[in-house]
Amino acid sequence: MKINKIFSLTKVFLKNSFKSIGRNNADGEKKRIGLILLYIFSFAYLAAIMGFMSYGMIQSLALIGQEQVFLNLFFLGLGLLFVFQSVFSCINVFYFSKDVEMVLPLPLKPYEIILSKLNTILVTEYITEIIFGFLPLMIYGIVTSAGFLYYIMSIIALIVFPILPLLLVSVIIMIIMSFAKITKYKDKFQMIVGTISILLIIAIQFLAFGNTEELTEAQIAEKLIQTNGMVDLIGDYVITLKPIIQAITAENIVIAIIEIGKVILFTIIGYAITLLIGQKIYLKGAIGSSAGGSTKKKKIDGQKIYCKHIVAVSYVKKEFKILTRNPVFFMQCVLPAILMPVLFLAIALAGGNGASNEAMLSVKEIIKGVNPVIIIFIITGITQFLGMMIYVATTAISRDGQSAEFIKYIPVSFHKQFIYKIIPNIILNIISMLIVFILVGIILQINVYLYIPIFIIGFLFAVIRSYLELLVDLRKPKLQWDTEYAVVKQNMNLIWTMIYGMLAIGLIIATAVIGEVFKIDARITISGLILALCIAFYFLDYYVEKKQEILFEKIY
Amino acid sequence: MIKIENISKSYVKGKKSVDNLSLEIKDGEIFGFLGPNGAGKSTTLKMITGILNPDSGGNIWVDGKSILTEPLEAKKRFGFVPDNPDMFLKLRGIEYLNFLADIYELSSADRKNRIEELTKKFEIYDVLQNQMQSYSHGMRQKIVICGVLLNNPQNWLLDEPMTGLDPKSSFDLKEMMRVHAKEGKSVLFSTHVLEVAEKLCDRIGIINKGKLIFVGSYTEMKEKFKENASLEELFLELTDEDK
Ligand SMILES: Nc1ncnc2c1ncn2[C@@H]1O[C@H](COP(=O)(O)OP(=O)(O)OP(=O)(O)O)[C@@H](O)[C@H]1O
Ligand SMILES: [Mg+2]
Predict the structure, then answer these.
(1) Contact (CB<8Å) B72/A296
(2) Which helix (H) or strand (E) is B30 found in, with range?
(3) Cα–Cα distance between B213 and B235 in angstroms, integer?
């Protein structure tokens, strides 16, 4: 029956979006398994952090007998997470993924496509849930020594809970798409929605947890309960929130079933409404949406447009244009370089002007006493940490997709193109570094001269990391993709950006430790590090130049 | 002039997509490369242009410069239109052309004349300010062709250039190929359509399953069919196709 159709359609969509992991079967099972293990490890790491944080929260709340507040916050947070995830996924999966064009001409009813698409998104949300949602609930159960019923209900709740936010978001997006004919401005629309969502997340973080620094457990608990007031408020609008919490905390099975029954009923109604609306309006918005771009006729104005530039400038400009005009690339590659340090700055400032002014003063006092070398190393370490979020070099080849073969037939040497490709990454690293400098300048007011070695070391590290990251991408470029997300999200190579960042931080710490242990003069330690980095850079560049033909072999 | 000597390529071990192919395209010649789907036409063109490295053994020269040992010199001597024109779709047409002009180091005045001349001829001048993602397949094809023609390369390599072009543009392109060849330059293009090859090409090469099975003029080919039944079959396969 229909179920079969929907099932196989879902499978096709899923395969399409997870192709990344299955591809490249040419290079050996072992490596792939290794990478998958690496992924599982990082997911486990994230899950552990979540668990650890939850444990802390539950403990502080348990002290004042308010541990149930945790559940409210937990589901509220999870719900928000799903709303944001759904905004991105729905736009992308419903409207801008290339399989839409392939599926539309098939004899399928709109609701069949919608159901399959919803399933596809749900699967990714369940993965999110396994990472972020599972452990905290289990820990809550253990801490409150809950019974068997709690665990059963938690699992059912986790299964049902993500559906309604997703349905809500998808209906809203379908309505926007069909009415506003926004598809013409696809790129700008996605950029605006994306940026607003990110800003909202930040704003909510501030509202909820303003400044959590230096608070006692009791104060934290108080803060959390304050936030809980918000839950009551929002709970009236998010209808599944209260029944779900009642279901998992129910004393007896009858109440549990009644409450969870309510949730399931709401979900079914939600499904019905979504499909009814979708059946009417989905196709209207979807047709022709992947084309995008305005087709206004504009005159070519003046001579300026024909101005000649040297190849390097022209090439780097081209890279930046593609980076900033593509909403997904912009959000995943460019925005973090600017937003992350700003976020950092904002949090630090919020901490600074709140209760802990004395704390700030004492930090400044301490810093006066601290060996400036340590400050140099710490700030350089921070710049490298922020550099880990900049994926421009790691995706430089893959982002070109099928146009990548262009690199191969133009008369510009691969070595030069290698350098042009990493320049945007280096520039974004420098921007991120400068923002950190401003932050440090405002808060710590360290000696201006310290910035010079920090900049030199940070810059050299950024250059070397960029080289290594592009080498990673060249070794396994991902050129066949349907949506940009495959490059900047579902891409195993990204993990190397983190690894190289951590290595850089490790090297900085090691240098600091060696300098301390052997009592080496600060100027010598720092000059030594700079010299070592220069030598490393020289050899890297030499390697790339010598091996350029082989390095670019995988692009075709 | 393009000279190919004993090149082979296997994407996967044991299966040759191009098998020991040798070929010479002389100056002033239009050469049509014919064959069914999967015959190895694109693979050959990709090896000539340096996109793919051939398996060891053979060599390829563009105007006497080997793509293997002097790649940059060789790459300056041809212009290539790939089979998939979906390139850098976030760039505006004018930006794309300017970028190419920068790469081929054209002066400001030269590029202005060339760009206006070419794009007006192909009737895409009016959309140059739009991002290429708003172009139709044929328009994308045209802008890629314009990009290649900007610096008037000695050798043209085109992978199925006619697909997606409307009759007028197709006609214009063929005319330009003729003019190009008259100037003593060479054109190599691939196609499925025998009729195009018949009317346009000085010589044709037929490739099937990686092997070059015929090289010569159209009349020579007809002669050959009388003797060779399997070639005739392939010929039918090619003529059967819709235009
Ligand atoms: N990236 C690739 N990986 C593996 N095999 C490939 C790849 N590209 C092409 N092939 C194989 O090489 C052979 C020749 O393909 P090629 O693209 O050169 O054919 P073609 O003559 O251009 O066909 P068409 O007329 O369809 O464009 C085919 O058998 C194909 O399966
Ligand atoms: Mg082909």
Answers:
(1) no
(2) strand B30-34
(3) 12
Mean per-residue pLDDT, A497-521:
88
pLDDT tens, residue by residue, B69-90? 999 999 999 999 999 899 999 9
Angle among Cα A228, A234, A239 to the nearest 5 degrees reads 120
Could you tell me how many residues make up chain B? 243
Same-domain status, A136 and A251:
yes
Q: Does B66 touch chain A (CB under 8 A)?
A: no
pTM for the complete prediction? 0.75
Closest-CA distance, A399 to chain B, in angstroms, reads: 10
What is the reported pLDDT for B195?
A: 81
Judge if the beta carbon of residue B38 lies within 6 A of ligand 1: yes
The verdict on A330 and A246 lying in the same domain is no
Q: What is the mean pLDDT of residues A153-171?
A: 88
DSSP string covering A422-490, please? HHHHHHHHHHHHHHHHHHHHHHT---GGGHHHHHHHHHHHHHHHHHHHHHHHHHS-----SSTHHHHTS
Give the long-range contacts of residues A43-46, CB within 8 A, separation 24 or more.
A43/A130, A43/A131, A46/A131, A46/A132
C-alpha to C-alpha distance for A341 and A352, rounded to whole angstroms:
16
Do A318 and B88 lie within an 8 Å CB cutoff? yes
Same domain, A318 and A188: no
Residues A247, A323 share a domain: no
The verdict on B49 touching A (C-beta cutoff 8 Å) is yes
Q: How far is CA B102 from the centre of its chain?
A: 22
Amino acid at B72: L
Q: What pLDDT score does A294 carry?
A: 47
Please report residues of A whose CB lies closer than 8 A to that of B105.
Answer: 308, 311
Q: Which two tokens stand for residue B22?
A: 């040798």
Domain count, chain A: 2
Closest partner residue to B90 (CB to CB) among A311, A326, A412 is A326
pLDDT tier at A219 (50, 70, 90 boundaries)? low
End-to-end CA distance of chain A: 43
Give residue A270's Cα distance to chain centre: 29
What is the spatial distance between Cα A322 and Cα A487, in angstroms, rounded to a whole number?
14
Q: Quick one: pLDDT at residue A120?
A: 87
Q: Is the CB of B82 under 6 A from ligand 1?
A: no
A281 plus A319 within the same structural domain: no
Nearest to A404 by CA among A466, A478, A306: A478
Residue A35 is assigned to a structural domain of this protein? no
Q: Look at residue A249 and tell me if it is in a domain.
A: yes
Same domain, A185 and A278: yes
Q: Above 0.95 for ipTM, yes or no?
A: no
CB distance B52 to A554 below 8 Å:
no
Looking at all shown ligands, the one closest to residue B11's CA atom is 1
Domains of chain B: 1-77+155-243 (3.40.50.300), 84-153 (no CATH)
Residue A14: inside a domain, yes or no?
yes
pLDDT recorded at residue B155:
94
d(CA A295, CA B126): 10
- What residues of B are in contact with residue A186 (Cβ under 8 Å)? none
The parent domain of residue A191 ranges over: 1-19+66-294
Regarding whether A106 and A246 lie in a shared domain, the answer is: yes
Helix, strand, coil abundance in chain A, percent, nearest 5: 80, 0, 20
Spatial distance between the Cα atoms of A54 and A299, rounded to a whole number of angstroms: 59
